[in-house]
Design a protein that fits this description.
The protein is mostly helical. Helices cover 81% and strands 0% of the residues. The protein has 9 helices and no strands. The relative contact order is 0.23.
């Protein structure tokens, strides 16, 4: 669980569409609007966790070999993501344009829909979660929901903190190219490390 928590935190801190979306809303509308967006994004994780819990549980009941095959595919998928990060330019762009202020519920709903309708989240969880499931403990469904809850909690805490310090964070990232390079290679190491963990 501790390894899962550290891996989840590293992944959440990696610059991606979710954290940049929270940053943009915080800069444009204020920290509480960024937190509302974060709440919507992490609530959407419940849907993906349920899909994974039902799917993986069914696969384990059918065959342990099938489950192992899914884990290998998941590791390969994470390695592919790492390669995509490697090919991407080393820059993090966050718009400073002022947008029309929306209601807190509107941003919560937008974040929720944005997360739920992203099939890549389900694929990512399918690749990420199996490496931390201990079959000998039984009740795989409960284990997956526990992992999902831990992932949601740490993501919400981090997104909320990012919302609060958004202005300073974005200025620092814009003015420090070496930090952007560090973040890029951090993402690559995290994805490769989790892939190796799953295979082992």
């Amino acid at each position: 669980m501790l390894t899962f928590l550290f891996a989840s935190i590293a992944l959440t801190l990696s610059p991606g569409p979710d954290i940049l979306y929270v940053l943009t809303q915080s800069i444009s509308n204020g920290k509480k609007y960024g937190i509302a967006t974060a709440a919507g994004l992490v609530t959407g994780i419940l849907v993906h966790t349920t899909l994974i819990a039902l799917g993986i549980s069914a696969l384990i009941k059918q065959s342990e070999w099938v489950f192992m095959f899914i884990k290998v595919l998941g590791a390969c998928y994470l390695l592919w993501i790492a390669f995509q990060v490697y090919k991407a330019p080393t820059s993090i762009a966050v718009s400073k344009e002022v947008s029309t202020q929306k209601s807190l519920f509107s941003l919560f709903k937008q974040g929720f829909v944005m997360n739920v309708l992203n099939p890549k989240v389900t694929l990512f969880f399918l690749a990420f979660f199996p490496g931390f499931i201990v079959e000998s403990l039984g009740n795989v469904t409960q284990q997956i929901y526990l992992l999902g809850f831990v992932f949601m909690l740490q993501a919400f805490v981090i997104f909320s903190l990012v919302s609060i310090i958004a202005d300073r964070l974005t200025v620092f990232i814009r003015s420090n190219q070496s930090f952007a390079v560090f973040l890029k290679w951090l993402q690559i190491l995290v994805f490769v490390g989790i892939a190796v963990l799953i295979l082992m």
